[in-house]
Amino acid sequence: MRNRARLPYFFRAAAIVLFGVSLLAIGIGFYKAKNRAEFRMQGFPTELSKDVVASISNYERRETEGDMLKYLIRADKATTFADNHQEMENVYLEVFDEGGGSDTITAAKAIYVPGERRMFTAYFAGDVSIATRDSLRVKTDQLTYKREDETASSEEQVEFERLNVKGRSFGAVVDIAARRVHLLRDVNIEVTGDGGSQVGSAVVKAGSATYDQVSERIDLENSFTANVNGASGSGIQNADVSAGRAVALLSAPEGEQRRLKSLEMFENVKIDTKEGDGRPTKIESGYAMYSTASSQFDLGQGVRIVTVEDSSPTVISASSAKYQQNSGRIDLVGGVEVAQKNDLVKGDNVTVFLYPNRKLKNSIVKGNAFVRQAGADRTTELSAAEINADFGENQEMRRATAINSVRAVLVPAAPAEYSRITMSTGGGATILFKGAGLIDQMNSDGRTTINMD
């Protein structure tokens, strides 16, 4: 009876011991896991030998070809296994080129797998850092390096920096030999201006990107957005841009800070650009090339520009355009229309000059030129081979000069009260306006015909 009475006690004691052992095992496992960099990259070999051949502290290995050092490996500890692969702790790898330059990779742990012809693959884990011969720095947590093609790839968060260009992405392939970085997903790149200036600085985002360090070119794919700073006469011209894809070119002084030189955009381009705290000019096109030094846009494949978005915006459309923001000049080609308040300008080729507030100041129209100004009482229409029209700061036409095959028509709003007047001349004509649709004076050259309906 006494033994039976003591059974619950033994069970309780055994349970306490088992619980303590379990806690100890969990604690040891947690400690080991905490201090073990996990190798979780794709392509990691699953069948490596577990038979230890040797274990060396303060390990160092140099691989040479003739008198030329090819690579150097150091580690606090290196364990060699029966299949000749090595597992290393606190590892340092340096790979040399024929010119004596070198690239380095450091990590908390590494697995070195030898291959044929003195080639190898190395898997790095834990605080991985790459430093290349041309000042590129890359940080990640998992990395696979292949000596045969000199590529280093990561499938996790990657941060990189080269001079004043830095960024991050999820996944990357560093082609060390070609000096090219492929950023695989969720790309964010920042270029700070050189010499402390904001001109040429940019923050760029894209689905994927490739940075070619030789040509200083960044190809941005799979939807692209950016905030770019260009030069203006009185400070900084800021632009928010987006497109389906883009190509960014950086200035390339040897060893000096980079800046964004130009940005070429394709597919569904949208641009909001403004100077300082001013209102933005909005641009839409199928193609755009932006130069930061001149703050100039070369636009194509259908262009629409709204110079100032307010109650009476200036709306411009054409097949292609060159917009020089600093001078306020826009050269337009193909089916051009410029609409502002009561005025309309149309033609095959139009050069527009803007006031500092981005309102229409002057237009030079060549080929199928047409100008219209509408008022409450009447509308004036002018057509010719070429028309040069001036506009006041109140957005109303002040003067129009027409050349060759000129035809001017005054259309009354109430035909019962006013006559329709048509003037035609083969030479030229100048019209002075005194208000919306109101003519103050009209002068013509050569034979002129006037009809009143």
What can you see in these coordinates?
- This protein has one helix at residues 2-34; strands at residues 52-65, 68-81, 86-96, 102-114, 120-131, 136-146, 151-162, 165-175, 180-183, 187-191, 202-212, 217-232, 235-243, 245-250, 260-275, 281-291, 296-300, 303-306, 314-318, 320-324, 329-340, 343-354, 360-374, 378-391, 397-403, 406-412, 421-425, 428-435, 438-444, 448-452.
- The chain has a 30-stranded antiparallel β-sheet that branches.
- It is 7% helix and 63% strand.
- Among the domains are: 40-152, Lipopolysaccharide (LPS) transport protein A like domain (lipopolysaccharide transport protein A fold, Sandwich); 341-453, no CATH class.
- With 453 residues, the chain is mostly beta strands.
- The protein contains 1 helix and 30 strands.
Topology at a glance:
Elements: H1 2-34, E1 52-65, E2 68-81, E3 86-96, E4 102-114, E5 120-131, E6 136-146, E7 151-162, E8 165-175, E9 180-183, E10 187-191, E11 202-212, E12 217-232, E13 235-243, E14 245-250, E15 260-275, E16 281-291, E17 296-300, E18 303-306, E19 314-318, E20 320-324, E21 329-340, E22 343-354, E23 360-374, E24 378-391, E25 397-403, E26 406-412, E27 421-425, E28 428-435, E29 438-444, E30 448-452
Antiparallel strand pairs: 1-2, 2-3, 3-4, 4-5, 5-6, 6-7, 7-8, 8-9, 8-10, 9-11, 10-11, 11-12, 12-13, 12-14, 13-15, 14-15, 15-16, 16-17, 16-18, 17-20, 18-19, 19-21, 20-21, 21-22, 22-23, 23-24, 24-25, 24-26, 25-28, 26-27, 27-30, 28-29
